[in-house]
Design a protein that fits this description.
mainly alpha
Length: 218
């Protein structure tokens, strides 16, 4: 924890400098615009926009699923698969490695194959992620477990990056209110954050009463 805290502290200053420069540039650009051109919306107004509530709820479940894997995979590998804590920690990192590859491949696939229609990629990728997590609950050997973890991370990274990022801008442009992109993004990501918090209560309850296979199946 001491090393992690030190590294975070070292990165704080350059991040602050970048944020300060960006804020300065935005303020200079905004001075040239009239205040009448700005528009604000509350959360309930944002959720009434076509497609926004669906995207927000989708991100809620995607974030719940991803954080469940990030937090509980090491425990699962130690208690259910009988691995040592060190090996379980290393293998759990395969999930994030799959996410890195999945995010890159998804971006390429959306641009080249789907012509930028990013939301079309979310459904099949989410289905695949669910399938691989179900398979993980029944994997019997190390190779199958590793493959399921990597493929689940690969599949879930695309919907996570799409729904939490570019989808918000697309929604505001689709509804012809590009000036509320930040409100849409904040609302969608807020739902995702709630899902990340709620997974702690849902995961522990399912694990207590039904066990590991049911947890990953659900």
């Amino acid at each position: 924890f001491s090393i992690s805290g030190t590294l975070v502290g070292l990165f704080a200053l350059p991040i602050y400098r970048c944020a300060s420069d960006t804020a300065s540039n935005e303020s200079n650009g905004s001075d040239k615009k009239k205040e009448s051109s700005t528009k604000s919306m509350g959360m309930m107004e944002v959720l009434k926009m076509p497609g926004c509530f669906s995207v927000a709820m989708s991100y809620f479940f995607v974030k719940m699923m991803r954080y469940m894997c990030m937090f509980w995979l090491p425990t699962y590998l130690v208690k259910h698969s009988g691995m040592t804590p060190v090996r379980a920690g290393i293998l759990a990192g395969v999930f994030d490695a799959g996410g890195v590859v999945g995010g890159i491949v998804t971006g390429f696939f959306v641009d080249v194959v789907l012509g930028g229609r990013m939301l079309l990629a979310c459904v099949p990728l989410s289905v695949c992620a669910g399938f691989f997590l179900m398979a993980l609950g029944y994997a019997q050997d190390g190779t199958a477990t590793t493959a399921c973890i990597f493929l689940a991370g690969f599949a879930i990274a695309g919907p996570d990056s799409i729904l939490g990022g570019a989808a918000s801008r697309n929604l505001s442009e689709y509804n012809r209110v590009p000036e509320v992109t930040r409100a849409v993004s904040g609302t969608v990501n807020g739902f995702g954050s709630v899902g990340a918090v709620m997974q702690a209560f849902g995961t522990s309850g399912l694990l207590m009463y039904f066990g590991w296979p049911t947890l990953f199946g659900i």
